[in-house]
Amino acid sequence: MVVSEQAILDALHQIPVERWDEVLLFLQRQNPGEQAVYTAADLLQSGLVGLWADRDDIGDSREFARRLRRQAENRHEAPDATGQFLDIP
Does a structural domain hold residue 80? Predict the structure, then answer.
């Protein structure tokens, strides 16, 4: 898959300013090929838990998670910075 600089910039512009520090930390990881290991406490402090609590477009959270997993398994689709899936040939 070839990703253009403009596509990356467009995705970054969709991320709320308040979350830019998270993006920068992710980009600055020393070993990008390695998966970070987080404890439950790390995840609770990260702000990820409850991140979508106020969203009314998700509906049943279990079904939403299942749909995201199915979409992620499909190599023809990839999420943009907001979690929306774009069709990528």
Answer: no
| Residue range of the domain that includes 15 | 5-75
> So what's the pLDDT on residue 49?
80
**Among candidate residues 68, 14, 78, the one with its CA nearest the CA of residue 89:** 78
Instruction: Evaluate whether residue 16 is within a structural domain.
Output: yes
For residue 86, report the phi and psi dihedrals to the nearest 5 degrees.
-110, 140
Give residue 74's pLDDT.
73
Residues (pLDDT < 50) of the chain are: 89
How far is it, in rounded angstroms, from Cα 28 to Cα 19? Answer: 15
Alpha carbon distance 35, 31 (integer Å) = 8
Q: What is the mean pLDDT of the chain?
A: 77
Backbone angles phi, psi at 85, to 5 degrees: -100, 130
In a domain, 84, yes or no: no
